[in-house]
Write a structure and sequence with these properties.
single chain, 114 residues, alpha+beta, 3-stranded antiparallel beta sheet
Length: 114
């Protein structure tokens, strides 16, 4: 069991991490907006952040993780919308599989719009 003081410290640390994530998303939104775009895909904007990956289970629709739900609430407060959308993904056809046909799949990703 942890003490109340340790629990408060954990809450403060999580608030700092959330503000850091929102700052990173904000930078990518600013870059996209200056280029005239109206949306970003979080997996492409921040490719090394695994918390933005969407897990799709067979026979179920994709859902937000608890962390993604918190980020969505924070972005909604600023007027953005975040959703899970399917995007066309090309699989294969690279140098290692020149003889194979390119397969096109629709996989779920996180999309932020404004």
């Amino acid at each position: 069991m942890i003490t109340a003081k340790e629990a408060k410290e954990l809450v403060e640390q999580s608030d700092e991490k959330m503000s850091r994530r929102l700052d990173q998303i904000g930078e990518k939104i600013k870059e996209a907006a200056t280029l005239g775009k109206r949306e970003i895909w979080l997996d492409m904007a921040l490719p090394y952040h695994t918390e933005f990956a969407v897990a799709e289970r067979p026979f179920y629709s994709a859902e937000f993780t608890p962390l993604q739900r918190l980020i969505e609430q924070k972005l909604k407060a600023f007027g953005y919308s975040m959703q899970i959308a399917k995007r066309e993904t090309h699989i294969g056809g690279g140098l290692g599989s020149m003889d194979d046909e390119v397969k096109i799949e629709h996989l779920p990703y996180l999309q932020v719009r404004w």
